[in-house]
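Holo prediction — DP6.
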Amino acid sequence: MWWYHHPVTTATAQANPNIALIKYWGNQDNTLRIPSNNSISMNLDGLYTRTTVSFQPSLPFDELIINGHEVMGTASDRVSYILDIIRGMANIHERAEVISENNFPSGTGIASSASAFAALALAGSKAAGLNLSEQELSRLARRGSGSASRSIPGGFVEWQAGTNDEDSFAFSIAEPNHWDLVDCVAIVSASHKKTGSTEGHGIAWTSPLQAARVADAPRRLEICRNAILKRDFNAFSSIVEFDSDMMHAVMMTSTPALHYWKPASLDVMNCVRQWRMDGIPVCYTVDAGPNVHVICPETEAHIIDKKLREMKGIENVLVARPGGPAKIVENGK
Ligand code: DP6
C-alpha cells in the first residue's frame, strides 16, 4: 500500500520592528484590526525578529518557541490564529512548529509584536507554499498585530486604514536610503508594561479626545508625509512630537487611564526640546511604553547617543537606521 507522504515544509523570514511617526491608536474593528486612522512609520534596521515556520504532519498542535523557550497561552493563540488563516488560504491542515528569535536584548521594552507578526506572516505563508504579494502579506501581518502591517514594506511606510480587510494595508512611501535619520532608543525601563496595546486600542474611544485626534489625523499625515519626502527636519520634528503627545493625551484620558511615561521618559523629552532650542536637529516620540525614541539626522547621532547615555535613569541606548522590508532568509523543501 502506498502512503502519500507530505513533505515537511519550512521557511525562515526576518523582519524589523518599526517606530510610528504618526501613531496608530484605536480601531474601527478590533477583531480585524482596522485602525481608526492611517499611520506612518520607519523600519528599524539592525533590530529584527527571525522566525522559522515548519508545517509537520506529525504535530498534534502548533508549537511556539521564542528565544529558546516554549510559549503557551495568549501569545501562542495569537500565532495559531494567523496560522489558521494561512492554512485556510493554502488548504492544508498540518500543525506547525514556530521558532522565533529576537536579536534585540529581551526585556528592554522594545515592542516585538510588529517584527514578530511580519516575520510570521512571511515565513508561514512561504512554508505553506503560498506566494503572497506585499499587500497580501501586509494584510495578513495586520491581523496578528496592527503595527506589523508596517514591517512588511521597507523604509518609510504608510498604513492606509481603509474600511475592511481588503483595503487595510501598508506600503513604502520612501526607500530606507531616502533620508539618513537615526533612531536612538533611550531604554528607560526593562520591566514589562502593564497594559498591552491591544487592550489600549480597545479603550481608546472612551477618551473624549480620541475623536479630535482622529479628525485631525489627515492633516498630520500630510505634514509628516511631505516632511519625509522633502527631508524637512523642522516640519518633521514638530509634527512627530505633536502626534506622540496627542496619542498620550488620549491614553491618559481614557477609562481606565493609561500612563506609560516614567519620570525618566519625561526627563528625556524635556532634554530633547532643550537640545533643539540649542540648535541641534532632534525630536522625540514615545509608543505604548516608557522608552523614548530620539530621532535625529546621521550627523547628530553620535552626540545624541552620548548625551542620552550620560543621563540618569537611562539603562541603555539602541541605535537604529531606516530598515528594509521583511525578507525570506532561507526556504526549505
Ligand atoms: C503605540 O500594533 O502593538 O505602538 O494591533 O493590538 O497588536 P495591536 O497593537 P500594536 O499597537 C501599536 C501602538 C503604538 C503606535 C504605533 O505603532 O502606531
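READOUT: The first strand starts at residue 9 and ends at 15.
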